[in-house]
Specification:
Blueprint lengths: L1 E6 L5 H13 L3 E6 L4 H7 L5 E4 L6 H6 L5 E4 L9 H6 L3 E4 L5 H16 L15 E5 L3 H12 L3 E5 L5 H5 L4 E2 L3 H7 L2 E4 L13 H4 L7 E4 L8 H10 L4 E4 L6 H7 L4 E3 L9 H21 L9
Parallel strand pairs: 1-2, 1-3, 3-4, 4-5, 6-7, 6-9, 7-8, 9-10, 10-11, 11-12
The structure holds nicotinamide-adenine-dinucleotide (NAD).
InterPro entries: D-isomer_2_OHA_DH_cat_dom, D-isomer_DH_NAD-bd, NAD(P)-bd_dom_sf
Family: Belongs to the D-isomer specific 2-hydroxyacid dehydrogenase family.
Keywords: Oxidoreductase
Length: 306
């Protein structure tokens, strides 16, 4: 069995070493396609691969057509919107992600960005503190849960809304579960976004939802840019001089945000949430283990194209 690691942005060497160890211990062969610059290189490399590990690399119908021997694709990371799930199902290819492996990294970044923002981006002026503030966690999944854990350490009052996670599960962590996104945004001065980008959530963070946030509101986005209605967020920030937007996913209208909202807007230059040595290693090794489990034992835990 041949397992291909196809990464435009490669894993750290220590992660590749860990992946190799897992794959070779199972008696499989590892092939690497790193820093490729052209889709043709990917199309060529996938020809005889039985399994592929990717990061943000695009797996579309053309790649799947070229990968005649392919049985499984694992996205080392949480979001899998870079894989055409319908095409994978049509090609009888299992797609998995590696949920939870980078959640702590993203949560630490979210809290780090909150501190940075309430301290006025370390510009030398007096800021405010997070302790005692109401934090709303929008979606209580792997990242949301870690944000709750860290935020409680800061002494924040933590609330959450999740459309699918039962309230008892949230409240067991000492977090107050609310019934709707509207209630969450009305209650909390700081909201940390952790919803996936789906047909339902795209553009869902809009003027109507944000307008009722308490005075001195801050929205922190480490999820996806697609969930934000950018035009309506710009309008809201024009109408509310107290509103801050802090994001790890640069908006399409970054230049406009930066120009209009200096001092209350910040974006990382590129997505950094999962960019830690630990997350990189964890996700890569989990991907290798999931491939071995699938190819040897047919284990489909973490399959996302049911
Ligand atoms: P997850 O799948 O563990 O959790 C997502 C949660 O969202 C689930 O609990 C689900 O019930 C909930 N949900 C789904 N639709 C909802 C809706 N309409 N309303 C409310 N809740 C809803 O995912 P995760 O690992 O916690 O990741 C969360 C987000 O962070 C995703 O958008 C992911 O792409 C993003 N992410 C970003 C980075 C980064 O580098 N910044 C890294 C990892 C993940």
């Amino acid at each position: 069995m041949k397992v291909l690691v196809a990464t435009e942005k490669p894993f750290a060497k220590v992660a590749v070493d860990g992946i190799r160890k897992e794959i070779e211990a199972a008696g499989f062969e590892l092939a690497l396609l790193e820093k490729y610059t052209d889709k043709a290189q990917l199309l060529d490399a996938v020809k005889d691969a039985n399994a592929i590990i990717i990061r943000s690399d695009i797996i579309d119908a053309e790649v799947l057509d070229a990968a005649k021997e392919l049985k499984i694709v694992v996205r080392a990371g949480a979001g899998y919107d870079n894989v055409d799930l319908a095409a994978a199902t049509a090609h009888n290819v299992c797609v998995m992600n590696t949920p939870g492996q980078n959640s702590n990294a993203v949560a630490e970044l979210a809290l780090g960005m909150m501190v940075y923002a309430v301290r006025n981006f370390y510009n030398g002026t007096s800021g405010t503190e997070l302790m005692g503030k109401k934090l709303g966690i929008h979606a209580y999944g792997n990242v949301g849960r870690n944000v709750a854990r860290v935020a409680k350490g800061f002494g924040m009052e933590v609330y959450a809304y999740d459309a699918f996670c039962p309230k008892e599960v949230i409240e067991k962590d000492g977090v107050k579960a609310l019934d709707s996104a509207e209630e969450l945004y009305k209650t909390c001065q700081v909201v940390s976004l952790h919803i996936p980008a789906t047909a339902e959530t795209k553009n869902s963070i809009n003027y109507a939802l944000l307008k009722d946030m308490p005075k001195g509101a801050m929205l922190v986005n480490t999820a996806r840019k697609e969930v934000i209605n950018e035009a309506e967020l710009i309008k809201l920030m024009e109408d509310r001089a107290d509103f801050k937007y802090i994001t790890d996913i640069m908006p399409a209208a970054n230049a406009e945000f930066a120009e209009k909202f200096a001092g209350r807007y910040f974006s990382t230059p590129k997505k950094m949430g999962a960019q830690t040595a630990e997350a990189n290693i964890n996700a890569g090794i989990a991907a290798a283990q999931q491939i071995v489990g699938f190819l040897k034992d047919g284990c489909e835990k973490f399959r996302v194209n049911k």
